[in-house]
Amino acid sequence: MASNINLTGEITDFILLNLPAYWEKTASDAASSGPPPFVLGVSGIQGSGKTHLAARIEEIVKQPPFNMKPVVLSIDDLYKTYAEQKALAASHPTNPLLQHRGQPGTHDLELGAAIFDSLFHHRPTRIPSYDKSARDGQGDRTDPGTWTVARTLPTEEYFAALSTTPSPMSLDDRPVDMIIFEGWCVGFRALAPVDLERLWAASRAKQSPTSKLWRHDLKDLELINNSLLAYDVLTDKLDALIHLFVHLFRSVGTFGSQDADLCFSDAKDTQNVYDWRLEQEAALRQRRGAGMTDEQVRAFVDGYYPAYELYLEPLRQGGAFQRGGHGDDHGQSALNLPSKQLRILIDQHRKPIRVKPI
After folding, report:
1. What does the pLDDT read at residue 335?
2. CB 213, CB 203: distance < 8 Å
């Protein structure tokens, strides 16, 4: 039962289990310029409660036993500008997956990499913001002058402040020591071309009415998959991942399911995604006075389904950590550690009904 799950306790224990490995990996950095922030990914389908969960985690880690200074970064806030997205759509006019924001290829990865680099080097960092209600719901990046700044003392001043008793350093001046990176495709990894084609062919042969994968041309899916390769620059930064999970599709032959009791696959559960996203957009329209219509929302969600069918099952099995955390700087040792991913199974009301470290 959902009421029996102490989600705060589960998240606390999960982070505590992963911190020693992080400290070991970053020991050499700590001795010189200070360790980079611990990067915790939060992933889940549209409307599943990622933003709410990220805010909850932010509050958890500010308190004992962590007393950390977190910053939340959403992959949604890394979308290309409206003008850039329009240009991208125009350059691929026959690919329906690129006609609006959302898919791999529609994010500004250079901006994302620059933000991580700045936070890793303890510099004051502007955290971008994206207004989904702008341009009649098509969205656009906000004015950089309005972005929140994650403040931190330069490294030399930070170490000097630590050596002073009592320390003059305020909480605002402390270095950011956790990045909570949330988004619908956080942790996704590109598939091998042979696996992509096999999944598409199996979907095309079955032509399930709840599937969207078979309705797309393989070449359009290949473009998205190739774009996803570049997202490794962000995914490689992850030290751990919390995944809000509601399984929408049965495996079609490439990736097996080891936990049948953790899988939803009927049309009712598929509809939840539309209901959740419609609910979010209605709230956005009420708050901002603009946004997508219900019809536009349904078409928007349709564009995400091929990616859900392709990448959710590998993610569920821990695929985000097929490469080492923090990239090549810290090697592959993290691959041998258990429980780098916490899977939270949710019901149609977004309530947790099972928590499982993997």
Report:
1. 44
2. yes
